[in-house]
Amino acid sequence: MTKITTGASVSLDGFIVGPDETGFEHLFQWYGNGDVHIETTSENVPINVTEASAGVMRDLIAETGCFVVGRHLFDITNGWGGVHTLGIPYVVVTHSVPDGWERESEHHEFVTTGFDDAIAAAKRRAGDKDVGLNAGTIAAQGLAAGIVDEVQLDLVPVVLGAGTPFFSGLTGAPYVLEGPIRSVQGDRVTHLRYRVVRR
């Protein structure tokens, strides 16, 4: 059965990126802290992690059938060149299809009719696998809508002070979670998974 999950590398004070798109060198340092290579679609994004972190990443890749991302992430990554770094299809929630891009391909889909339609499109693409919501406003919308089943934190020992929160613009708090139902210690990262308690 398809689960809706959300996850990201996050600072101790809850930010997935610092002010003005800063802090990535800290949030993703663990991507280069080991000797286990994770295959990606981009030579510019090498991932070499510890065996512990590799297990977490292998599970993510095996279990996730589609990501749902916002237009901002799509723009700053230039759509990962058309194919997500992990090779997983993605749906973009946006007001309009960007110039030079097809509305839909094997690897991506732009949904301009709202969050609910984007989730439906991602579920179709995911099949029996999970749908992963990008942290930030997309994760916040999912949690507020009551559709998020699990939250994965890749908790990094850095305090950014400001930036974009994991659940940016969240309404309806508090939300209660169970767990952690999984805890894995990597090198300068702790992978924590929680189950969302249904209201």
Automatic annotation (TrEMBL):
GO MF annotation terms: 5-amino-6-(5-phosphoribosylamino)uracil reductase activity
Bacterial bifunctional deaminase-reductase C-terminal domain span: 4-169
Listed GO biological process terms: riboflavin biosynthetic process
SUPFAM superfamilies linked to this entry: Dihydrofolate reductase-like
Protein known as: Dihydrofolate reductase
Organism (species): Solirubrobacter pauli
